[in-house]
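Operator note (shift B, R.M.): manual run for diguanylate cyclase requested after the automated queue skipped it. Running by hand, logging everything below so the morning shift can see what happened. Input copied straight from the record, untouched. If output looks odd, do not overwrite the archive copy; leave it for review.
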Amino acid sequence: MPASVETTLRGPEAYSLSRQVIDEMERAGVWPTPLNFELWLHYLGDPEGALGREIRRILAAAEPFTEATADMLAAEYLPRGRLTEEIRDAGRVLDRELASVSSAIAQAHRSQAAYGQTLDKAADRIGAVEDGEALQTIVTGLTAATRRVQRENETLEKKLDVSTREVARLREHLEQVRRDAMTDALTNLANRKAFDEHLATACEEARTSGRPMILAVLDIDYFKRFNDTWGHQTGDQVLRYVASVMGRAARTPRVAARYGGEEFAMIFPNETPEQVETALEAIRKEIASRSLRRRSTNDELGAVTISAGFAVRRPDESGAALLERADAALYASKRAGRNRVTSAESLDRAA
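Run finished. Output pasted below as returned.
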């Protein structure tokens, strides 16, 4: 949240902003859930920010602001602050562990140095010993010093073992936080942020290796009409179903992502157009082959279909340009009657 919004929420203007949030949510027909309220605070507190612009776009397009929409926006725009806080917490724990280990190591160094001095003095004294009692005293002192060093070493080993396990736990926790921040909450596919990163990486790898890379964009046909007829919760059920089919097809190194509300994307590194078209047709046919039922009432929903378009990356083509061509192929599928797959290259040949 920008500093100006954070300041506002801790001053007398917070009540005015909160009332404005409720009024605007009611005007837009958005339920005042905690997540929606948080999103609207960001939106009205920083209307020119990325989240504010996206919410304005959704409202201008008269798209329904569903729970799935809220989850998608939160996954893309809100986790960054939470992720930063998680990293800060982990950093504080890591600093504490490193300080503890450093202290133990420093103490062990001092003990070793003192032990060395004790050995040197003992060597000098042994050379001058004339009776057994004096020698016994020296040996007793060496034994005590050795035991002290052993205890210090044991303490150091225990601290290192505890810290190693704690660092491993932190690493696992941060990796889970990173995965959560890059995952769409509704479908468990990669979210828009993760998709953007994967696309940039795939384009760069294709550029340096000279290998092919193909991007596909998929969209659920008549999804708005479906939502209006059956309700948004059932719409979410459809989104999860389509995502599950895509997820099974997205074997590594393929990447499947929820790109927008009912729009998905898949990245196909090092595959031919024929292989990609076969994979997309298999996805399309599997999705259309099932007659869905409403989970809450068992009402027959009928079949759901998708349209898809894909484009082969051209030499030195950016991810944005590739996405634009894949989108054009998707809309060609829509214009041709939906429930079909179209390649950008076939459009080029037709033109």
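Quick read of the result: The CA atoms of residues 30 and 65 lie 6 Å apart. Residues 132-181 form the longest helix (50 residues).
Leaving this for review. - R.M.
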